[in-house]
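Translate sequence into structure tokens.
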Amino acid sequence: MGADTNADGDAGTNDRLNELTSWHADWRGLRVSVLGLGVTGFAAADTLAELGADVLVLASPGPDERFDLLTVLGVPFVQADLREVPAQLAAQHPELMIVSPGFHPDHPLLLWAAAHEVPVWGDIELAWRLRDKVGPPAEWMLVTGTNGKTTTVQLTATMLAAHGSRVAPCGNIGVPVLDAIRDPQGWDVLVVELSSYQLHHLPHSGPGALKPWASVCLNLADDHLDWHGTAAAYRAAKATVYLHTAVACVYNKADDATLTMVQNADVQDGARAIGFGLGVPGPSELGIVDGIVCDRAFLEDRFERALELTTVPHLVAAGLGAPHVIADVLAASALARSFGVLPATIHTALETFHLDAHRIETVAIGDGVEWIDDSKATNPHAADASLAAYESVVWLVGGLLKGVDIDALVHKHVGRLRGAIIIGVDRTVLRQAFARHAPDLTVFEIDSDDTDQVMTEAVRRAAELALAGDTVLLAPAAASMDQFESYAERGRLFNQAVHDFLGR
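Result follows.
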């Protein structure tokens, strides 16, 4: 087959894709299939249509206004059961496929692409190649981890903005990177939250490989094993965040896996490993000394002294005093300091920062009982951090466990539990874990299938168990999609049920 042909996987196609490393390259007529029409899928289709590519969107049927927008844009689409390869895909003979994060690696359409040697990119690689649309490209800071990503991204962006940088928090946080790089005002820095799904599709080398200013993996615990297949595959995806980092590879001193990732990463010359932790920091680390949050990394005489960033009492007063949140503050400070943000600026930024809703949010205090909404704790690692912050807990737990073992979490925290309320579809596993490790603990199950009633019943049962001084903690350790639209809806209904109960 000649190199100038356009058949699947041929040399001519690959040569052309290798040259597409700028918004100003010639993308016209490139045949691209986009899988999925969520936030990232639509952003990819919209971007490629703007570039003049020949786009075909493939998505599952649904009453989504994005289909109407595709019609306005003149982008053809297929609504079908994507477990079968649509005839329109084969007829398009795509030269490139853009995959949305939700598609498993063994999805039939991805297997079809592999069989036909069609290159597959994620939205992040596409955005990296197109990042020069508005003047000089922004620097990228990458944030991943099992938990704490969104908070760390928001903290970092707040610190950079206080420094005077034009900064956009984007990626898995909800704003597609493709939207950020097309913003007409342009940016100095993009702080990009990356899920393991997005990292899985990033190339390790070549023209699509990212070269971030700084990067961090906050922590690592088994999660999304139903998607990645194995813990090793999940870990390998997370490790991709450090590749080709230019200035600072930030790692968690309390999680050896993150340090190992940094040690094994192929980075740019001059990149430094920067540790963070809740203990006393050594040189090239951030940590805490006598309640003072310190930087011993970004100063010339770091072997002799440290710089004060803030204090633990200040963080507590700002609602940032939970240990896992302080860890996020340290990680964000490391990223910001790598970009030259001054300690005084970080201190000021932290005084005005507020956590998002449903992240260890105090809903109410009544009869001496504190009601806490941490619906964002969608896996055992996040729930572990929440539980550790309170001494006596009535725990609302359960949902969609995603194949993750819950047993160790129950065993670790039974000593602090007043009782437990189990919700969600995967109740059997939880019931067995409590029976094994705390047979005398009072455990209620909520078996209602009515989304509007689940939290009403759960709150009523929790109130029966809680005593003055206790915390009723919604930290489900599970995804929400079994009974709720999102963790936010789960948290909102919990909030509503608590206020309704206390009002009565």
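Note: The longest helix spans residues 487-503.
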